[in-house]
Specification:
The structure is a single chain. By secondary structure, the chain is of the alpha+beta class. The protein has a single domain, classed as L-amino peptidase D-ALA esterase/amidase (4-Layer Sandwich). The protein has seven helices and 16 strands. The strands form four sheets. Strands 3, 5, 10, 11, 12, 13 and 14 form a seven-stranded mixed β-sheet that branches. It has a five-stranded mixed β-sheet with strand order 1-2-6-7-4, covered by helices on one side. α2 links the parallel β6 and β7. α5 packs across α6. The longest helix is centred in the C-terminal third of the chain and has 24 residues. It is globular and about 65 Å long. The chain starts with about 30 loop residues before the first strand and ends in an 11-residue tail after the last helix.
């Protein structure tokens, strides 16, 4: 686990709403996260053999059988230069029925195989006497540091990440799918944050986890301060830093169905924009939002299913929007703060954000202090 500080540890407070206990996606009750990190080898690239800088991360909307007890969900796409396996069925049915996996681009098919194997093990009737499973797998490219030809994530790694998924604190930075990622020209990876609504808004929680791998150095803004502008000549990054991708997972325990969750997902794009990203041409920017407040049974007992839905015309929905925007922004910055410098294939290197310098820049602009908020 990284010893680098999270952004709040440095005194920078992003947004106005309060975080949950762990300031993580797992502050949404029963949401679980698991990582498997694969690092081996150094030196010249040997296609298919290494060096290896990759992994897999999973988000479980709840700890039960997801195939039997599905959750409402939606997908929003800012820029579609990427692969989001399972998107079409989520769009059609408004449900997720598998763990959500994140990985490197060329691992997608193998990771899907692991998700399917997990579903079969839990549900022997899957694809035999009942429907097949819709595996949800997302990706970002770790090509600059990793030997992608080797597709080093295997089925057993996926199964282990699911088995090891836990509630509580979430490891960030160079872990799981984030191992080989680049963010705003610095080392990137996994980041997370949460927001808890006030008592008058039901004390619901919104949690976000990101796989950050996008943006150019000079675009980076931290709490509104143009940090990237001041660091643009600090150990300049190279090689396609204006493309990359980002995956954003939004979780909540507020009762929401797919249409409302689509609205929530779109607000995550506003949190991304606050960090300076422009969703560049070569970027795959996918947002998956789900609510685990209610479960939809695979085997219904009747012909009508009644589910609750938050009122969308009052202050509650606006508080959920704000929570999503703030948690997304902070999760992305947490990914930067947590990630450590890494050298990968062919000696390619991504340097970590110089946190002390970045904090000094934010303070210079007077943007470290918290705002007041009633939500």
């Amino acid at each position: 686990m990284t010893t680098r500080p999270r952004v709040r540890d440095t005194g920078i407070v992003i947004g106005a709403m309060s975080p949950g206990e762990h300031n993580a996606i797992t502050d949404v009750p029963d949401v679980r996260v698991g990582h498997i990190t694969l690092i081996s080898g150094d030196g010249p690239h040997s296609p298919g053999a290494g060096p290896v800088r990759t992994g897999v991360s999973v988000v479980l909307p709840h700890g039960g059988n997801l195939f039997r007890n599905k959750v409402p969900a939606a997908v929003s796409v800012l820029n579609g230069f990427g692969k989001c396996l399972g998107q079409e069925q989520i769009d059609e049915l408004g449900l997720i029925e598998s763990p959500i996996a994140l990985t490197g681009t060329m691992n997608v098919g193998i990771v899907a195989d692991g998700i399917i194997e997990h579903a079969i093990r839990e549900n022997p009737d899957c694809g035999v006497t009942t429907s097949t499973v819709n595996a949800v797998v997302t990706e970002c490219s770790d090509a600059y540091l990793n030997d992608q030809h080797g597709r080093h994530v295997r089925q057993e790694h996926v199964l282990s990440s699911i088995e090891g998924a836990r509630t509580g604190p979430v490891t960030e930075g160079n872990v799981g799918a984030g191992t080989g990622m680049t963010l705003f020209g610095f080392k990137g990876g996994i980041g997370t944050a949460s927001r808890r609504l006030s008592e008058r808004h039901g004390q619901y929680t919104v949690g976000v986890m990101v796989l950050g791998n996008c943006g150019r150095r000079e675009q980076l803004r931290i709490n509104g301060a143009p940090v990237g502008h001041h660091l643009r000549d600090w150990k300049p990054a190279v090689d396609g830093e204006d493309t990359g991708s980002i995956i954003i997972i939004v979780a909540t325990d507020a009762p929401m169905l797919d249409r409302a969750l689509g609205r929530l997902a779109r607000r995550a794009g506003m949190g991304l924009a606050r960090t300076g990203s422009i969703a560049a041409h070569g970027s795959g920017d996918y947002i998956i939002a789900f609510s685990n407040a209610q479960q939809v049974p695979h085997d219904p007992t009747g012909q009508v299913l009644t589910l609750a839905q938050v009122e969308e015309t009052g202050s509650l929905i606006n508080a959920l929007f704000q929570a999503t925007i703030e948690a997304t922004e902070e999760a992305i910055i947490n990914a930067l703060f947590a990630a450590e410098s890494m050298t990968g294939r062919d000696g390619n290197r991504r340097d970590a954000l110089p946190v002390a310098t970045a904090v000094e820049i934010v303070e210079r602009y007077g943007l470290a202090r918290p705002l007041e908020n009633e939500s």
